[in-house]
Automatic annotation (TrEMBL):
Domain 3-hydroxyacyl-CoA dehydrogenase NAD binding residues, every copy: 7-205
Family in the record: Belongs to the 3-hydroxyacyl-CoA dehydrogenase family.
Residues of the full protein shown: 1 to 309 of 798
Position of the signal peptide: none
Record's keyword terms, sorted: Fatty acid metabolism, Lipid degradation, Lipid metabolism, NAD, Oxidoreductase
Domain 3-hydroxyacyl-CoA dehydrogenase C-terminal: residue ranges: 208-307
Protein name as catalogued: 3-hydroxyacyl-CoA dehydrogenase/enoyl-CoA hydratase family protein
């Protein structure tokens, strides 16, 4: 077990991965930020003509966030002074570099098979002592590590950051069945003391704690909107400040999360819940399917319920 975490690798440079990497850099940790796509961006004119349904292109849009870290413009989210602590790269070309870090955090697409394949790949270069965590919104920790060795499983757990990672205080730590208690305790303490988070220990249940409640609430709101024909503005008016919650607690949250990720999160819970439970709530509402068909998947594509200006 490392005495401290000096070097980390974030795998997946989308909405969450780029934000987590920025947070780590800002607290002094040297961070590799790896993706399946090159860190370079599509030229502007090519991006403008690209179809958003193409997952590859969507991911390139998401990777713009990497560029944010390198920009010279000061912003509250990304301090340029720390940008050179982040080294972007490609997961294929730079895989062996994972052998040099104290902590690997996986932040790729919310899909069990994709995550399992990545863990098998990571284990080829992983050294005992390196902690490996997932930022999954709710996939089982036990299932994700199913094809890895017991030694790897002892070093593996969930560290679930909330969006945006820099500002959201909550972080769920989710030990798996075989996670070493010392490693769970070390990560809990590290996330509290070094990353400044308020850690809640969660059990390895579908969507853990916060997302089981949060996803449920958002889905019920969207379905009620469809049923009653309410507009985005009307729903915001009743679910925002009037209820003591932030302005646009519903739709800006969904745009920020990414509608594709939100649908994955809901579907994963649906697949795991038994019949006769609240399962039906977790089916994606029509409006999300219609928006996804147009490529309107939230801020990362430039358009969700709101247009990104
Ligand atoms: P995203 O779609 O914005 O980004 C995912 C990134 O992973 C993309 O850049 C993609 O190219 C990359 N990727 C996919 N497969 C890869 C692989 N095999 N190797 C390397 N890179 C790969 O997704 P996101 O919103 O950042 O979500 C990432 C994870 O964090 C998911 O598990 C999600 O459930 C979780 N999460 C998301 C939010 C949120 O608000 N979006 C909040 C908390 C947790």
């Amino acid at each position: 077990m490392p005495k401290s975490i000096r070097k980390a690798a974030v795998i997946g440079s989308g909405v969450m991965g780029s934000g987590i990497a920025a947070h780590l850099a800002n607290v002094g940790i040297e961070t590799l930020l790896l993706d399946i796509i090159p860190a370079s961006l599509l030229p502007e004119e090519e991006a403008a003509n690209a179809t958003l349904e193409d997952a590859k292109v969507r991911n390139r849009f998401a990777s713009r966030a990497v560029e944010k870290l390198k920009k010279a413009n000061p912003s509250p989210l990304y301090s340029p002074a720390f940008a050179d602590r982040i080294q972007p790269g490609n997961v294929e070309d730079d895989l062996t570099k994972l052998g040099e870090v104290d902590w690997i955090i996986e932040v790729i697409v919310e899909n069990l098979q994709a995550k399992q394949q990545l863990y098998s790949k990571i284990e080829q270069v992983w050294k005992p002592g390196t902690i490996v965590t997932s930022n999954t919104s709710g996939i089982s920790i036990k299932e994700m590590a199913a094809h890895t060795s017991d030694e790897f499983k002892a070093h593996f757990l969930g560290t679930h950051f909330f969006n945006p990672p820099r500002y959201m205080k909550l972080l769920e730590v989710i030990p798996g069945e075989k996670t070493s208690p010392e490693i769970s305790e070390f990560m809990k303490s590290f996330c509290e003391k070094t990353l400044g988070k308020g850690v809640v220990l969660a059990k390895d249940t579908p969507n853990f704690i916060a997302n089981r409640i949060g996803t449920y609430g958002l889905l019920v709101t969207l379905k009620e909107m469809e049923r009653s024909g309410l507009s985005v503005e009307e729903v915001d008016a009743v679910t925002g400040p009037a209820m003591g919650r932030p302005k646009s607690a519903t739709f800006r949250t969904l745009d920020l999360v990414g509608l594709d990720t939100f649908v994955h999160v809901a579907q994963n819970v649906f697949d795991l819940l038994p019949d006769g439970s609240e399962k039906e709530v977790f089916t994606p509402p029509q409006i999300l399917k219609q928006m996804a068909a147009k490529g309107w998947i939230g801020e990362k594509s430039g358009q969700g319920f709101f247009k990104k200006l």
